[in-house]
Design a protein that fits this description.
The protein is mainly α and 493 residues long. The protein has a single domain, classed as MetI-like (MetI-like fold, Orthogonal Bundle). The chain is 78% helix and 0% strand. It has 24 helices and no strands. Helix 16 crosses helix 18 and helix 21 runs antiparallel to helix 24. The longest helix has 34 residues. The radius of gyration is 24 Å and the shape is globular. It starts with a helix and ends with a helix.
């Protein structure tokens, strides 16, 4: 209950600021031309990024899962691998490769390359589970392959496309480093600029409120588009495995297209980082890199442990005692995870400055921010493992004289340990590359890989920033392997 209430802090912060500012001043701050400009920029970014990202993800998923494409497992892994490159590192690579790159076009290109894997994963997983009998029936009615795809296959991918699009859209709202480097103004960049220079609390806070409303609007829009249609297969037996369709003369162009996408999303960052490392030489690998790596591991691991412990009671309740109240509390965990780091940071800054000044810019506040931002990741790892721990074992332990608490600790927690480890790993890797909340809340003098990289890029010292970029990419690679393997395991392939 306490964690669920704490997760409502950003929403309460927005409401409190609106009340304290007053209706007249709040309306004046929200209806400023600057806010309208940022809304237009945000809408254009979403509209320009989502369609090409969806097209790229669906085409790649179709080629790797439903055709006889050579080396399909390799192409599948390459489609997911860009997740190992933080978005602001992608932007760093492209802006140093093309120094004049800026504006909406640059923001769209880098966003598509950085975030299309979030669409590829659910679409590919759904393609693997589709019943090919529906496609066979449509073909027997005289539909050509293209019409079968658009009238039968694509509608069944709605859930995967909607879920992936929501993830991408929320990341576009939350991202700071990518758009700051390509000089494209969004709500997050505007809030961070005010926070780091002449901090205007009412203006920044009201922009944070608009950003929260944008997030809630995206969640509502996704639920409306997704609908409540049934997608599960009915009837006896299991769906057969779909036969892979021959590409024929399209095999080479298909591989060329996938190779181009991999070169743009993986080749460019890898080459640029390697180039700057070569230019910097051994001097850039100083003690500061090891120190930043140590601080990153310490803070992210501590944040992961705190987040997993905070999520454990709710995960246990949702599995062992599901109900309306439990579902509402669980929803709080997921809603706060959809908010940008800058909103969570603003809320915690306001609370600590006003009512808990000794906690301002302390490790404790930073760990709370990590917990709020990554609660959904911890829940995703804990819930399945708790669900697979039979409740009968707990009852048997209590029948043998154990108290309920002892039974849970001795039986359930041991069985759920792999899920807890997965949660800690997922949160650790997310916290290691978190930029905005760390910049706003970390104690003075803290240098993580992300903040050190950002500081050096701000000084145009790209060679010195390269080791930090390389360390973040290497640290994120295990997450991409886990996501790729888990996606295939869940779909049964």
């Amino acid at each position: 209950m306490l964690v669920a209430l704490l997760s409502l802090l950003p929403f309460g912060f927005v409401a409190l600021i609106a009340i304290q500012t007053g209706w007249t001043d709040a309306v004046a701050l929200v209806l400023r031309p600057r806010v309208g400009e940022l809304l237009v920029n945000t809408a254009l970014l979403e509209l320009c990024t989502l369609p090409p990202a969806i097209a790229l993800a669906v085409a790649t998923a179709w080629l790797t899962e439903r055709t006889d494409l050579r080396f399909a497992p390799v192409w599948s892994w390459l489609a997911v691998a860009p997740l190992a490159v933080p978005a602001f590192v992608q932007s760093y690579a492209w802006t140093t490769l093309v120094p004049g790159m800026s504006g909406l076009g640059a923001a769209t290109l880098v966003s598509v390359l950085a975030y299309s894997p979030f669409l590829y994963l659910p679409v590919a997983a759904q393609l693997r589970r589709l019943d090919p009998a529906l496609e066979d029936a449509a073909a027997s009615l005289g539909l050509d392959p293209w019409r079968v795809f658009f009238q039968v296959v694509l509608p069944q991918l709605r859930l995967g496309i909607c879920g992936g699009s929501l993830l991408v859209a929320l990341h576009l709202l939350a991202e700071y480093g990518l758009y700051a480097l390509v000089r494209y103004d969004t709500f997050t960049t505007a809030i961070m600029d005010q926070f780091q220079s002449a901090y205007n609390a009412p203006a920044a806070n009201m922009m944070g409120g608009v950003l929260v409303l944008c997030c809630m609007g995206l969640l509502w829009l996704e639920s409306r588009i997704r609908g409540d249609e049934r997608y599960a297969r009915l009837g006896p037996g299991a769906a057969r495995v779909a036969h892979r369709k021959p590409l024929g003369p399209w095999a080479i162009p298909s591989m060329a297209g996938l190779a181009l996408a991999a070169a743009l999303s993986l080749g460019v960052p890898s080459w640029i980082i390697a180039r700057w490392l070569a230019i910097g030489g051994a001097e850039v690998w100083g003690p500061a890199v090891a120190s930043a790596l140590g601080e990153t591991l310490l803070l992210s691991l501590a944040g992961a442990i705190v987040t997993t412990l905070a999520a454990a009671p709710m995960a246990w309740l949702s599995v062992r005692a599901p109900g309306r109240v439990q579902r509402m509390l669980e929803a709080c965990h997921y809603y706060v995870g959809s908010l940008p780091g800058v909103v969570v940071g603003l809320a915690l800054v306001a609370v600590t400055v006003r009512v808990a000044l000794p906690l301002y810019q302390t490790v404790a506040t930073l760990l709370i921010a990590y917990a709020l931002l990554f609660l959904p990741r911890a829940m995703a790892g804990l819930r399945p493992s708790l669900a697979q721990a039979p409740v009968e074992l707990e009852r048997a332990a209590m029948a043998l004289g154990r108290t309920p608490f002892q039974a849970v600790c001795a039986i359930t927690l041991r069985l759920a340990a792999p899920g807890a480890a997965a949660s800690i790993a997922l949160v650790t890797l997310g916290a290691a590359t978190e930029l905005t909340a760390t910049l706003m809340l970390a104690p003075s003098g803290t240098r993580t890989l992300a903040t050190a990289f950002w500081s050096l890029t701000g000084e145009i010292d790209y060679a010195a920033a390269a080791p930090y970029a390389a360390a973040m990419v290497v640290a994120s690679l295990p997450l991409t392997l886990v996501l790729h393997a888990q996606s295939r395991r869940i779909s049964g392939r």
